[in-house]
Amino acid sequence: MEDNGALKVLSEPNLVVANGDEGKFLVGGEFPVVIASAAGSGAAASVDYKEYGIKLDFKPKIVKNGDIYIKVSQEVSELDFGNGVAISGFQLPGLTTRKAESGLQLGDGQTFVLAGLLQTKITRKITKIPVLGDIPILGTIFRNARYSNEETELMVMVTPKIVRPLNKEEIPALPTELMRPKETSPNLVP
Question: What is the pTM of this model?
Answer without folding.
Answer: 0.61
